[in-house]
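W.,

You were right to be curious about this one. When I first looked at the sequence I had no strong expectations either way, so I just let the prediction run and decided to look at it fresh. Below is the sequence, 379 residues in total, followed by the output.
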Amino acid sequence: MVDELPSLPGLHLSRGVRNPAVAEVRDRLERLGLLGVCPDGDDPAYFSQQVDSAVRAFQQDRGIVIDGIVGPATFRQLEEARWNLGDRVVSFSPGHMTAGDDVASLQQRLNTLGFDSGRVDGVFGPDTDRALREFQRNVGLSEDGTCGPAVWRALDRLSRTVKGGAAATLRSEHHHAMARTGVADKVVVIDPGHGGPDYGDVGNRLAEAIVADDLCRRIEGRLAAIGTQVLVTRPRSHELEELIDETARAQFANDTRADLVVSLHTDAEPTGRARGIATYYFGNAHDESMMGHRFAELVQHEIVRRTDLPDCRTHGKTWDLLRLTRMPAVRIEFGYISNSADAQRLADSDFRDVVAEAVSVAVVRFFAPDDGGDSGVTT
């Protein structure tokens, strides 16, 4: 799991509230250059319009939900953003991985120099540890996996002469090319959203968890029928007593060495007007999962061409399931149960069959040796 960063239990700050924790949020935003210093006489504990705008700008940059609300996820990202490379000594600690922008900078520099630290996700995991040790060995440093002053100096010295580089892109393309041998030898993890005591939003008599359960069963059946090993992150909702969080679901996928992760969700919002299908992959303003993005485009295309759901396109996000998995992962939002039109479609078993078929075809196409033409999935 990622090391627990300082946070405030039950944190939920938004425009108009007064809370001592707002001062901490303001301080982080000021340090990032997103907010001016609070003028003398103003209340630093007040969540003003300016703070709201700064929070939204930060959320946009970090690939998290842009709602202007500082909850645990946004505060954690604010905490990670305050670290620059050289501010602290970091290393790999199994079970409690360090996270921060300093780690992301380390990963970026290692990848540019040709040392494969994997995705630039800001989490000091085993891939970063291996890459750092290889770097230390190549530059004549003690191979201890610790990023301290000696490593900073070596990185700074080499970064002045080595710029750009497409090593990470080439590795990603190579790994995917090697995986394009069909679906029969692949492990696909399906992650039905919510579960247990968390049924998600309930609109028009549909619960998000129940829709996810049903879609999971339909996709699992199709992929298993063509020889894919399908694993599910949780049992059905009525069999699950406690909620399994995203970090644990990501760890499950990593432990099983899955080739692909498909997370199934529906959405909801208060007005009832929003509707449509969207697919998300790991990505922010600084990096993205190239193969995750590619699979997201395939999924979106297959669902949109088979249904009348509005196309809300694909987007990069840094939600834990997308960020912490070491393989391509996507989260599909199959419409809004708070919208009467989307809810009517999702309540139709024939429609869910069509959607399950679309996802299964996208999986087949992603691993197909030759992506020319459509691929069919037998049921």
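Here's what jumped out at me. The chain has three domains: 20-81, 90-165, 176-367. And, maybe more interesting for your project: The radius of gyration is 22 Å.

Coffee later to discuss?

I.
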